[in-house]
Amino acid sequence: MNGEQRNKPTIVVEGMPLSSELDEAMIHRVVHGFYEEIRRDQLLGPIFNAEIPPEAWPRHLAKMCDFWSATMLRTSRYDGRPLPPHLAIPGLCEAHFRRWLTLFRATVKRVCPPEAAALFMARALRIAHSFRLAVAFNRGEETIHVKPILEESLCSGRASE
């Protein structure tokens, strides 16, 4: 271990120490790989492609890299508000969040070592639940019935599903 590694603080995410393999390059691969899947997906693709024009995708991907960098590596690169755009999507429901999580899980399992994939998924599951609660609240619906989506309840993520 060199002096730089020894002086680097340990980052804890979801109660687990951050894997040294999780870095900006991995975040870039996750974000870009995930949104490639999203844009082709039959359920989510039409929503994302309607909301984000083709010329805006590079900026969106950079913003999502900043978001995940701030979320996972505790950088201060992201200063946006991710919830409001989701609140504006009519008809957003549990099926959309389940599909988002299924595709995200498939991406992190493909791109990341198991420890890093588990950290990404733990955070994604919490974000999805928080967003689902906010969507229900914003629509004036009862939030007590919004239960967390559990990873083991997700389907395999194959395109045919």
- CATH class annotation: Mainly Alpha
- Please report the distance between the alpha carbons of the first and last residues: 46 Å
How many structural domains in the coordinates? 1
Strand order of the largest sheet: 1-2
CATH topology: Globin-like
What's the average pLDDT?
A: 88
CATH superfamily: Globins
> Topology as H/E string?
HEEHHHHHH
Q: Work out the radius of gyration.
A: 16 Å
Number of helices: 7
**Helicity, as a percent range:** 55-70%
Low-confidence stretches: 1-6
Strand fraction equals under 5%
Tally of strands = 2
Query: How is the main sheet built?
Result: 2 strands, antiparallel
Structural class: mainly alpha
Inertia-based shape: globular
Proper CATH architecture: Orthogonal Bundle
Topology:
Blueprint: H1 3-7, E1 12-13, E2 16-17, H2 24-40, H3 45-51, H4 57-73, H5 83-87, H6 94-111, H7 114-138
Antiparallel strand pairs: 1-2
Protein architecture, described:
The chain is mainly alpha-helical and 161 residues long. The protein has one domain (20-153): Orthogonal Bundle (Globin-like), CATH 1.10.490.10. Helix content is 58%, strand content 2%. It contains 7 helices and 2 strands. The chain has a two-stranded antiparallel sheet with strand order 1-2. A hairpin with a 2-residue loop joins strand 1 (12-13) and strand 2. Helix 6 runs antiparallel to helix 7. The relative contact order is 0.14.
